[in-house]
Amino acid sequence: MPTDIHEPIRKWEQDQLDRKPYVKEFLRRLADPECPPVFGLYGSWGTGKTSFLNMVIDYYDYVLSNEAESSSNIPKLAIEIIDAWRYEQTGNLATPVMATLKRMAKKGDPLGADKIIQLSRKVLLVTALTATGSILRGLSAGTLSLEDIQKNLEAVEAREPASLRLVDAVDEARGDFKEATDWVCEVLRCEQIVLMIDNLDRCFPDNVVALLESIKNIFSSAEKCVWVLAIDPDVVASYIDQKYKDTEMDGHSYLDKIVQEHFHLPMPRLSGDHGSVATLLSRSLRAGQSPASLLDQDVFLQLPRTLVARRLIKAARVYSQLASPTPYSFGLILLHFCWPAFYRWLSVDNAAHIQNTLHNFYRLKRPSDEGAEQPTPDRFTKDPELVIFLDWLILRRSSDLSKTAEDVRQTILQLREVGLP
């Protein structure tokens, strides 16, 4: 298991969240002849999407090398992970896609890369220009000459309208991409290519939407290529909303048109002998510290924002540094990792400010109570998960907000000694 929690696991046997059954089902679906061309792996940041993709590849390699497992009749696949974030500076996320196909072709035929290079030219130009809308605008405005089109796209006769030339360019790019994927399958002797795009939700919104549109308009033409988009759908939908903010476009509906089927990463189990949050936390605590004292399975660990392995491990590691933790310590540490902006608002060395803030949440349960003198921003008090979390962490422990505020202040000061703000 990697000691750096920001490093994904690489091997199937490193799984500590009991996700092997889900990996098997995911691979079975990818190998299904009825699998849609675009498949989503959905999960928020930090939930382990990259680790899951690595496990899929490692398990597939295991299946191929194990006779008993091979009886499952999984077809031969060529699976590759493409880190979109790493290659974003290319300016066109189709570039690493074609570079990956070139590398795959070279594995099967030392001269195979040359053919992919030839087929990449139109694909990359069309995806780059249509990403900015510049083909149609350029042809219509006269800023893109016929010579440019003839040189780069081998366009048809000059008398054809700009829109027809654009259609031809897109159709040629679709055909070239299909031919490229067919060629890779031939030289690798595989039945299907699986391109798994990771970290797309960390890229600039315009680049994300451009790749989605390239998949929809060009790449989905290849029958022997399945796309897996490992993304946070809420983040990507917000990018689409931003891109089309002056229209009635809905980001989630747009995404659903492209991603025909998706698989949500399961949240870790709370308890058990293996693959549970308790097991995970125990590896980050000092000897003598028990994860049972940190876990309230009835409340806070049912919240999606808190039930993220990376955040829980980071919180446990900070907690393990405390010589004399208080009843509020672990919850406040987790609050810092899950709601950093609110933690900064709360963590002032002033008990009156803390009490004011807590009162504004407390009166949500008792609307008849008057609000505190200093209002708390709506973005905090209207966050339902934060309201539930604070109720678990602080409000239900005591109705004496004055004493509670002082206890929280003392805990915050203690947490500053181990690096929290």
Q: What is the terminal separation in angstroms? A: 29 Å
Query: So what's the oligomer here?
Result: single chain
Strand residues, percent: 5-15%
Biggest sheet, strands in spatial order?
2-3-4-1-5
Radius of gyration: 26 Å
Structural class: alpha/beta
The gross shape turns out to be elongated
Low-confidence stretches: 134-146, 153-159
Give the proportion of residues in helices.
40-55%
How many runs of DSSP E, i.e. beta strands? 5
**Individual helix count:** 19
Mean pLDDT: 82
What does this structure look like?
The protein is elongated, with a radius of gyration of 26 Å. About 5% of the residues have low confidence. Helix 4 packs parallel to helix 8, helix 13 crosses helix 14 and helix 14 packs across helix 15. It starts with 19 loop residues before the first helix and ends in a 5-residue tail after the last helix. Helix content is 53%, strand content 7%. A five-stranded parallel sheet has the order 2-3-4-1-5, sandwiched between helices.
